[in-house]
C-alpha cells in the first residue's frame, strides 16, 4: 500500500511538479532583453530579405517574388509559427502562419506585404535598390537602412516576425496570432480579396494588426486612425487619325495634348475645389471638435516646404495642410504623355494624348461612385472635335478607426510604453484598400501601428527605414499583444 502511494507520488512529481519547477517564469522584461540581445541579428536578417527584388508590378521579377514568399515562410517557421503555408493564388502567393495557444483567447491577425514597388528611376539611387546599406542621415543619426521595401513594407512586417519570435522564445505570447503576408499590395491586392472570401474560417480573428504606415514624426509618435480610398483612371484623347505637321495643320485642328491639358486644368477651381459634378456629395463633414483635436499635431509648414524643396504650398481653401492630406479628397495627375518627347524639336500635332489620374477618397465616398462621376464629367467637358476613352483601374475604400476603440487604445498604450511619450491619433492620406475589405469580410477592425516616417522616400529612389524606427516597432508589438489581450478579458 505504502509502496503504491509512493509510486503514485513519484509519477505525479515527475509529470506535474517537475515541469512546473523547471518552467521558468518569463516576463515582458525578458522579452525586451531578448530583443536587445538579438538586435544585430534581426538587422542582418532584414538585410538578406531586402536583397530579394520582389517587384510585383513587373512580371520579369516573378522568380524573386516566389523566392521572397519562401524566405518569409522560413522566417515564420523559425520564429515558432505552426501551419506555415505558401498559399498559391491566381497571382502572387500569400504566406500564412499561426500560433493558436487557446481557442478561448483573442486572436490577432498580422497583415503585411512582401512585394515592393519598382525601383526606377534607377539612376537616382545612391546605392543599389536591392543592395541594402546602413547610412547615417540628419534625421537618423543612429543610421537608416537604404533599400527598396525597407520601409514599405519589408522592414515593417519583419518587426512582427521578430516580436513574435521574442514572445515565443520568452514564453509570453498572451493570445493567438495569425499572419498573412501578401505579395500584391502594390498592385491592388487583387488575389487577397478572393482569398479572404474563401478562407473566412482560417483567417477568423478579433483584430488585424498592420505596420505599413508612418508616424507623424519621431518627436510625436502616432497611431494611424484613417486611410484614404482611391479611384484611379486612365484617359486617352484622340484627335486626327495620324500625327500632323504642326505648321500645315496648326490652328485649324484640335491638338489632343492641348485639349487634354485644358480639360485637366478645369478639374480644380481657383479655391482648390474639384469640379467633377457631385464629387463632394458624400464627403463626411468632420466636426469642429474633431478638427481641433487633429490639429493638435503640430503643423510646421516651413519645415514641410523645405524638406520637399517647395517655395509654397497649395490646396483647398479653408483647410490646414494636415486636413488637406487626410480628411479631404483630392485629384492628381500621376502621369501625362503624348507627342514628341525625344531629343531636339519635332514640329508635330500628335494623334493622341494620355494621362493617368488618381483621386484620394474620404468617408463616405466609394471608388465606384467617384469613378462613375469622373467618367461622366470628363465626357461632358470633352469638345465634340475629339474622341475620348476613359479606363478605370483598381480602387479602394477609405478606412477610419475611432479613437475610443479598444483596438486603438491598446496600440496607443503599447507605443506610449515603448516611446515614453504621449501617442496621438493621426489620419493618413495614403491608402491600404484591404483594410475596408477586412472589416467587411472578417468583421474585424484594423489597427495601423506603422513606424515609418514621411521622409522615408517610399515608392521613390533612396527609400530608407530608420534603425530606431525598426527597433521601436519590435519593442512596441509585444506590449500591443499584452494590452489588447487584457482589454478583451
Ligand atoms: N504602405 C503604403 C500606404 C501608406 C504609406 C499609407 C504611408 C500611409 C502612410 C501602401 O503600400 C501603398 O503604397 N498604397 C498605395 C495604394 C495601392 C492601391 C497601390 C497608395 O497609397 O498609393
Ligand atoms: Mn505598403
Ligand atoms: Mn506602397
UniProtKB/TrEMBL annotation:
<keyword id="KW-0378">Hydrolase</keyword>
<feature type="domain" description="Peptidase M20 dimerisation">
    <location>
        <begin position="226"/>
        <end position="384"/>
    </location>
</feature>
<keyword id="KW-0645">Protease</keyword>
<dbReference type="GO" id="GO:0006508">
    <property type="term" value="P:proteolysis"/>
</dbReference>
<dbReference type="InterPro" id="IPR002933">
    <property type="entry name" value="Peptidase_M20"/>
</dbReference>
<protein>
    <submittedName>
        <fullName>Acetylornithine deacetylase/Succinyl-diaminopimelate desuccinylase</fullName>
    </submittedName>
</protein>
<dbReference type="InterPro" id="IPR011650">
    <property type="entry name" value="Peptidase_M20_dimer"/>
</dbReference>
<dbReference type="GO" id="GO:0008233">
    <property type="term" value="F:peptidase activity"/>
</dbReference>
<dbReference type="Pfam" id="PF07687">
    <property type="entry name" value="M20_dimer"/>
</dbReference>
<keyword id="KW-0479">Metal-binding</keyword>
<dbReference type="GO" id="GO:0046872">
    <property type="term" value="F:metal ion binding"/>
</dbReference>
<dbReference type="InterPro" id="IPR051458">
    <property type="entry name" value="Cyt/Met_Dipeptidase"/>
</dbReference>
<dbReference type="Pfam" id="PF01546">
    <property type="entry name" value="Peptidase_M20"/>
</dbReference>
Amino acid at each position: 500500500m505504502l509502496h503504491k502511494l509512493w509510486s503514485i507520488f513519484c509519477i505525479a512529481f515527475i509529470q506535474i511538479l517537475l515541469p512546473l519547477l523547471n518552467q521558468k517564469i518569463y516576463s515582458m522584461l525578458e522579452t525586451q532583453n531578448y530583443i536587445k540581445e538579438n538586435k544585430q541579428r534581426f538587422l542582418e536578417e532584414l538585410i538578406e530579405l531586402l536583397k530579394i527584388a520582389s517587384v510585383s508590378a513587373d512580371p520579369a521579377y516573378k522568380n524573386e517574388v516566389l523566392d521572397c514568399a519562401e524566405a518569409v515562410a522560413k522566417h515564420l517557421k523559425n520564429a515558432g509559427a505552426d501551419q506555415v503555408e505558401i498559399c498559391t493564388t491566381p497571382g502572387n502567393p500569400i504566406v500564412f502562419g499561426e500560433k493558436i495557444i487557446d481557442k478561448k483567447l483573442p486572436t490577432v491577425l498580422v497583415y503585411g506585404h512582401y512585394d515592393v514597388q519598382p525601383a526606377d528611376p534607377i539612376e537616382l539611387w545612391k546605392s543599389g535598390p536591392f543592395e541594402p546599406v546602413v547610412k547615417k542621415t540628419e534625421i537618423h543619426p543612429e543610421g537608416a537602412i537604404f533599400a527598396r521595401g525597407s520601409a514599405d513594407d519589408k522592414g515593417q512586417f519583419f518587426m512582427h516576425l521578430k516580436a513574435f519570435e521574442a514572445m515565443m522564445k520568452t514564453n509570453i505570447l498572451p493570445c493567438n496570432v495569425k499572419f498573412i503576408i501578401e505579395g500584391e499590395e502594390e498592385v491592388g491586392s487583387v488575389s487577397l480579396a478572393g482569398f479572404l472570401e474563401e478562407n473566412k474560417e482560417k483567417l477568423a480573428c478579433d483584430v488585424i494588426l498592420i505596420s505599413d504606415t508612418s508616424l507623424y514624426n519621431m518627436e510625436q509618435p502616432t497611431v494611424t486612425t484613417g486611410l484614404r480610398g482611391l479611384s484611379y483612371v486612365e484617359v486617352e484623347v484622340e484627335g486626327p487619325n495620324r500625327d500632323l505637321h504642326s505648321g500645315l495643320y496648326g490652328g485649324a485642328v484640335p491638338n489632343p495634348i492641348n485639349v487634354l491639358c485644358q480639360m485637366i486644368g478645369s478639374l480644380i477651381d481657383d479655391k482648390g475645389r474639384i469640379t467633377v459634378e457631385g464629387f463632394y456629395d458624400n464627403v463626411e463633414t468632420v466636426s469642429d471638435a474633431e478638427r481641433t483635436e487633429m490639429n493638435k499635431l503640430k503643423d510646421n509648414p516651413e519645415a514641410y516646404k523645405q524638406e520637399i524643396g517647395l517655395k509654397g504650398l497649395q490646396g483647398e481653401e479653408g483647410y490646414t495642410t494636415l486636413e488637406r492630406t487626410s480628411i479631404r479628397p483630392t485629384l492628381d495627375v500621376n502621369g501625362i504623355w503624348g507627342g514628341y518627347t525625344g531629343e531636339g524639336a519635332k514640329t508635330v500635332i500628335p494623334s493622341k494624348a494620355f494621362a493617368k489620374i488618381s483621386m484620394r477618397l474620404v468617408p463616405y465616398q466609394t471608388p465606384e461612385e467617384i469613378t462613375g462621376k469622373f467618367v461622366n464629367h470628363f465626357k461632358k467637358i470633352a469638345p465634340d472635335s475629339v474622341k475620348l476613352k476613359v479606363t478605370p483601374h483598381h480602387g479602394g475604400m477609405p478606412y477610419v478607426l475611432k479613437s475610443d476603440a479598444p483596438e486603438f487604445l491598446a496600440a496607443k498604450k503599447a507605443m506610449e510604453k515603448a516611446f515614453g511619450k504621449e501617442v496621438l491619433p493621426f489620419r493618413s492620406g495614403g491608402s491600404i484598400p484591404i483594410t475596408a475589405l477586412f472589416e467587411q469580410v472578417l468583421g474585424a477592425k484594423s489597427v495601423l501601428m506603422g513606424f515609418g516616417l514621411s521622409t522615408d522616400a517610399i515608392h521613390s529612389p533612396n527609400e530608407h527605414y530608420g534603425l530606431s524606427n525598426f527597433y521601436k516597432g519590435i519593442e512596441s508589438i509585444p506590449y500591443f499583444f499584452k494590452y489588447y489581450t487584457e482589454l478583451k478579458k
